[in-house]
Amino acid sequence: MRDVETVIIGQGLAGTAIAWSLINRGREFALIDEGGLGSSSRIAAGLVTPITGARHVETWAWDKAFSIVSQFYQKCEQVTQRNFWKIEPSIRLFASQEERDRFDIRYPSDHSGSYSHALIGSKNRFESELEQSRWSSAVHASYGGFIMPQAARLLTADFLKASLDHFESMNSVSTASIDMSTEVAIDGEMILLESVDIRCKQIVFCEGHRALQNPWLNPIELVPAQGDILTVRIPGLKLDRVLHAGCWIAPAIGDGINDESLYYVGSTYRWAPLNGVPNEESLSILSDKLRSFINLPFEVVDHRAAIRPAGFDHKPLLGNHPSNTNFWILNGLGAKGVLLAPWCAEMLVNAMLFQKPIDMELAWNRTRKKPV
Ligand SMILES: Cc1cc2nc3c(=O)[nH]c(=O)nc-3n(C[C@H](O)[C@H](O)[C@H](O)COP(=O)(O)OP(=O)(O)OC[C@H]3O[C@@H](n4cnc5c(N)ncnc54)[C@H](O)[C@@H]3O)c2cc1C
Hints:
20 strands; 9 helices; 8-stranded mixed beta sheet
């Protein structure tokens, strides 16, 4: 039986970030994943977007998480000698005058010194980017928009593959599906995983939405949401960046794709059924949204779906198990896994190895406040 300090279950964005945080501290681990291709992390477009939603709000925890995210992925690029991280300004187009007015009220130009204003490029920059672009004649931009200079993108499939290759070169990966009810046994201070012949001091559960079936984590208030994403072909669009306008469109790069006319379009939110099966209604929602701001014909060449693991209050869920203290968890990354995983992984690993505190707001076993 092999002895390791830490076992990580799940090689999505959460488990992969934990593994890198351990490597960065010189610690060993064994990472176990069942090796399917349909996880939320595998199909995510990898967008990191500072201002989101119909109300143009700043992404939760942006300042804390963004301050480490670039350094984190760049270091992974250096170690693996692969490219998967890009800081790339993205553009948000307003869909109506009403939306534009809402934005102007939230970000009045006379408060341009505020933090949120640093996340929104100047009006002049937006206009000149649009004018100089090769794609502006193919989009409806009559209500204007704004630029997000700090937006970024992780080619998630490439990042996961490069990480897996690196972990395999360290002999730290097992491909297996672990049944949490029968294959995890506590043996004094240690945990036994007999099916993979491993004994460890601690486990970090990073199973995404499957944590809902893990008896060791019962109850956990995850509210998973299925998301659909299309791959479309739009000859002649020549879009070189991410555009948001009710939905988003992003050049399909990485993952072995080498066709400049392909784009990803996403994504939808559905709370039932949660089956990871692409949904006809989502196809029509995304197609209609795309038609509302792109005036070129398109062909849908692929349609995929996966289940995002989201916390009930849209914040991550992490920390230590109160009675089984060698169990740890990182989950609930919701729609922001790329931005939040490195920050949360650092916090969790610092708690695990150096007893540093975890923000109680993120405690994995927090529950909804009941009305008094
Ligand atoms: C359509 C769509 C688009 C998205 N776009 C973006 C985006 O642009 N930007 C962004 O930041 N986020 C995006 N997300 C969200 C992002 O994908 C999630 O935040 C993130 O992937 C969650 O990662 P995770 O590691 O917690 O879970 P998962 O990705 O679900 O990974 C869990 C892993 O655990 C493994 N596993 C589970 N149980 C077991 C077991 N018992 N034994 C062995 N292995 C097990 C699974 O096989 C899987 O590999 C998107 C999600 C969807 C669905």
